[in-house]
Amino acid sequence: MSVKYINAIPTKNAKLVQWVEEWAAICQPEGIYWCDGSKAEYDKMSDVLVASGLATRLNDKKRPNSLLFRSDASDVARVENRTYIASEKQEDAGPTNNWIDPKELKKTMLDLYQGCMKGRTMYVIPFSMGPVGSNIAKIGVELTDSAYVVINMHTMTRVGSKVLEVLGDNGEYVACMHTVGKPLAAGESDNGVWPCAPIEKKYIAHFPETKEIWSFGSGYGGNALLGKKCLALRIASVQAHEEGWLAEHMLILKLTSPEGKVKFVAGAFPSACGKTNLAMLIPTIPGWKVETIGDDIAWMKYGKDGQLYAINPEAGFFGVAPGTSMSSNPNAMHSSEKDTIFTNVALTEDGDVWWEGIGYKAPGKLIDWKGNVWEEGKSEGAAAHANARFTAKAGNCPCIAPEWQDPAGVPISAFLFGGRRPSTVPLVHQSTSWNHGVFMGSIVGSEVTAAALDLKAGTVRRDPFAMLPFCGYNMGDYFQHWINVGSKADQSKLPKIFFVNWFRKTADGKWLWPGFGDNSRVLKWIFERCDGAGKAIETPIGFMPTADAIDRSGLESVTDADMKELLSLDIEGWKNEIASIKEHYAKFGTKLPKALTEELNGLESRLNKA
Ligand code: O2Y
Ligand code: MN
């Protein structure tokens, strides 16, 4: 087949060029365009998207250089039931992943890919996850027929010529194949209709042995921006397992004390637990400062000094808009003041954006995320989709840490784990050892409220290490990997591990802890514990702060009685927890590490003696 190149091939990497041409032969695009990551390219793609009716340019005086997209109603979020780990052996995907035979899946998907880019351009996006050239970073190349994906990848990753230089003539990359799965007939254009395939044709497939990603039929978020969840978590977790490092669903923050001492903290929380808010927190305690390294993903390797160093592999934030306001997260609001791609938020009459929970009433009539006129108090449904997003540059975040692009990464002093736990789990407790910390990570979960999940309200939906949707291999092996990472380290240099719970409620359903900026009070105790200070008592579940250990100066809303409840040890609740953990662990069969069974048994016997 003769391949029509729109611009010159910017690499001599023969393997890469051959791979691009093989896919072009299958997908039959109009032409192939190699992305260079420049501002001129971003601007040109934006113009193309506006001309096709897919994007609305926002009022430049209100939101400079920003666009709004409305996706198809069937294409609004990650689709876990269409996401596959196609390892050669089913056991390698494990009990928590959708497994499918890779040969069978490739056959199905290759049929779908035939001619899928007709009438469209195939964009080749060379990108780096992590600072270009960092020894923790990895290179990916995404093929896509979506200009929306191209501009989002510009913001979320490092795209372009420098990446190809590092890749060189023979370098390795993670091959990422994506199409919206909606070919155009001769003369047809999108004409304002978000292109995607119906749900039963959507596939988000990962091939762990060959480190390939094949995505078909969705243009949205984690399904289409393949550097994020697909590469940086599902494939990278496999690479990290093979190569002895960690690829985690964790924020990274820099914490500075009033004395100017610095510690870096990484934290894993299930989706929708406020990771972005924590990463951009404004402390309520005087003199303390939080700065952001990353809000979603951390890649970590040991440095020559034996410390664990972390990078944020991303270059932007793909944050949830609804609920983000000047009171919940001013830094996220400022990050999205310009150069931002909004998806599925509402449009105001003066060309700005609005969403539920933005902190002020809808200014007049809006156009909602479905493209209909919407009036507050009159129209049905929400103006913005609950999973509406802003794609914003990390460099535009007022609290971005100066070290955020350091190729060496930042040394991690503490890991935090947490979920939404209205009962049982105290505000904060600390593990007594690395393996005890791994145990804490393995039992992360949130209490379910939604009947839709078909679970009894109050049931804990376990999301170990917040990696349930993102671990690219058997989660039992993943637990063992965490144990191994700790056992090979200089124990004195390992990060300390903490379990936090901002979501405790009273028996009558009131929040016990204000959260947001006041979480800095808990971070302060964690900081002190990492320095061998911070008052604590050893309990059956680990070290807990003494009643006076958490700084409550200026915090009238939390009474002594509230604090007592937040830091109480609920023996009966934890005994019930043991039963629930046993049920959770049973899924992993012989893959469950012995060390975790020992931790569970140890906890049970300490609770029985208490
Ligand atoms: O729905 C999507 O495609 C995005 S999901 C997402 C986006 C940013 C950060 N985290 C997540 C997540 O689901 O954990
Ligand atoms: Mn996430």
Could you characterize what this model shows?
With 610 residues, this protein is α+β, with helices and mostly antiparallel strands. It folds into 3 domains: 14-53 and 79-243, Phosphoenolpyruvate Carboxykinase, domain 1, CATH 3.40.449.10; 248-315 and 402-609, Phosphoenolpyruvate Carboxykinase, domain 3 (Alpha-Beta Complex), CATH 3.90.228.20; 316-396, Phosphoenolpyruvate Carboxykinase, domain 2. Helices cover 27% and strands 22% of the residues. The chain contains 16 helices and 30 strands. Strands 11, 12, 13, 14, 15, 16, 24, 25 and 28 form a 9-stranded mixed beta sheet that branches. A hairpin with a 5-residue loop joins β21 (366-367) and β22. α11 packs antiparallel against α12 (475-487), α11 crosses α16 (594-609) and α15 (571-586) packs antiparallel against α16 (594-609). 51% of the residues are buried. Bound molecules: 3-[(carboxymethyl)sulfanyl]pyridine-2-carboxylic acid (O2Y) and manganese (II) ion. Manganese (II) ion (MN) is lined by residues 249, 271, 296. 3-[(carboxymethyl)sulfanyl]pyridine-2-carboxylic acid (O2Y) binds next to α7.
CATH architecture of the largest domain: Alpha-Beta Complex
Structural class: alpha+beta
Named once each, the bound ligands are: 3-[(carboxymethyl)sulfanyl]pyridine-2-carboxylic acid, manganese (II) ion
Which consecutive residue ranges, at least 5 long each, have pLDDT under 50? none
Offer a concise description of the structure.
By secondary structure, the chain is of the alpha+beta class. The site of manganese (II) ion (MN) has 3 residues, from loops.
